[in-house]
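Same chain as my last thread, 235 residues:
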Amino acid sequence: MAPAVPLAVLALVALVAPGLAAAPGCDFPAQRWCSSRDVAAACQVESRCPELPHPAAPPVELSLYYESLCPACREFLVLKLFPTWLLLPEEMLSITLVPYGNAQERNVSGKLDFECQHGPEECLGNMMEACLMHEAKNFSTYFAVIFCLESGSSVTKNLEACLQIYAPEVDSGRVTACMQGDTGVALMHHNAQLTEALEPPHQYVPWITINGKHTDELQAQAEASLLGLVCHLYQ
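reply #2:
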């Protein structure tokens, strides 16, 4: 006498495989078709396996176009963006920082030069933060240092101190060399291109895009309650 088949297995077979017709490339018995997402995909029965775990949702992507000495930019980065990033799991929020803002790029005798809204000191700060990102590479490392710079008394004079506190593994000499050489100019040119490619064109700073889009409503929501906005948008 054949052994009894559990009712749960029979129900599963009836649910996922009427007629027990296996999909081409499915080498698994019917009772295993819903055992994992990979098996369900191989047997082409994902839609019939409601208990499968859903893949992780993509993070909410926020890009901040800003200037290093802009008071409103510093306030948003220090009081809204950085605390929100600290509170959320890494997989929920992806941040891109673009220090340039309302700067102007000029070609002077074959060399690129930049003029910034808040003067040469801001151009120096923009390039310092761009070079810091380039040298540190890891977002959590350079964002903490940028937070330190932007929340301090001087954006451009506290690099060494902020690195010692938040990223002692990053060589300040490499950041300075980047700022004084062609790499810094190339990074600022790249930021100029990113800023000029915005659609719609930016009208002020900070300029915030969410998942590649900017609207007055998204900007207002981000400035009023960034944590609430990200939690609402994360699927």
